[in-house]
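fold description:
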Amino acid sequence: MNIASPFSICIVAMTVLAFLGLPIGHAMIAGSILYLWLAGLDMGTAAEQLLNGMYVNYIILAVPLFILAAELMNIGSMTERLLQFCNAIVGRFRGGLAQVNVLQSIIFAGMSGSAIADAAGTGKMMQVMMTAGGKYRASYAAALTAATSVIGPIIPPSIPMILYALVSDASIGYLFLGGVVPGLLMAFAQMVIVAIGARRENFPVEKPTPLRDLPGITWRALPTLMMPVVLLGGIYSGATTPTEAAAVAAAYALLISALLYRSVSLRDFYRSVLGSARVSASIGMLIAGALVFNYVVTVENIPNDIKILLAGWELTPLGFLILVNVILLVLGCLLEGTTILLVVVPVLIPAAKALGIDMVHFGIVVVVNIMLGLITPPYGLLLFVMTRIANVPIRDIVRDVMPFLFAMVVALALITALPDLVLWLPRLLGYQG
């Protein structure tokens, strides 16, 4: 690559601006406009690409709606009732509270679509429950919450899968279905690590919930437990699109929290709307920057060049997927997941298609990699979130999260090598890929 070419200068400009503290979305837009100017192209193309991408893609609207649904769940008592239900189910076993942490993430995953929302929503409660009376080390509780939060965007609904569908044209419904078995596999791997740790460190056994209390606890948590049923049932019955289902999820969370549980004030509602708007605006700028920069990448014919390069290596589909895993795991140590998904993954998609790799399988492999990046040092966003929540040094959280990270990498290897783990459920419901 010519270091004086417009594309090289664009990359340098983006990198410098990002290091100077400009948000990456703004940096991508600025670098792309600089490229258009240096290449003698119409700089108004940047605005055209941004507007077309943001307003034509109806599916993007699902992102702020899922974020709002998660915020509304957190301000009500839905999360608290969910934890009570999980504790009644698995709290009686050795290391039971740690297993509760995994189980609640499985259930919460069917509601929020965001790993950060999962950690923020139940993370503080789980931290208090697990560390009360010195039952668990604060760093272990924080590491476990960070690891279990990774499950959130793998089991549907999933904001990263929505963004992947945006850049790949894969079916969101089948992507959601494809994430179910891998998500449960990741949860099983975490439960095994918890069980091993419980025996080695002699974790406490919680007081069993009397069986006579179980129906009442389940009944109080039932409206919360029904949210994934309402959400996914609407999508797969054909009654709603994924975007409409996100709106239904937000409305359902508000109605349950405000009218049934009566646990939401006007001030709480205002704060949740404001908080979700801020997060949505941040993601929106990333999407906008990626749309403009992806136009630059297309003009430079980068995806086709990479496809030709990989064809020269004569990689098998499995070999290509292993290479993608390595690339994404390394990038996950350095970059934010949404940036990888919107900037790096579109470059890899043409090569994946040329090798005959199923786009749903590829999408799940990509999303799992990006989620693992959230707990991979040194960047690991979830590690920093839990550091603030638990008020413990990040090095202690990193130490305790490593066994869970290793187990999930093993699960990723299985998902990569065995496409049927991803595609079995979509094919059962009509997927032809």
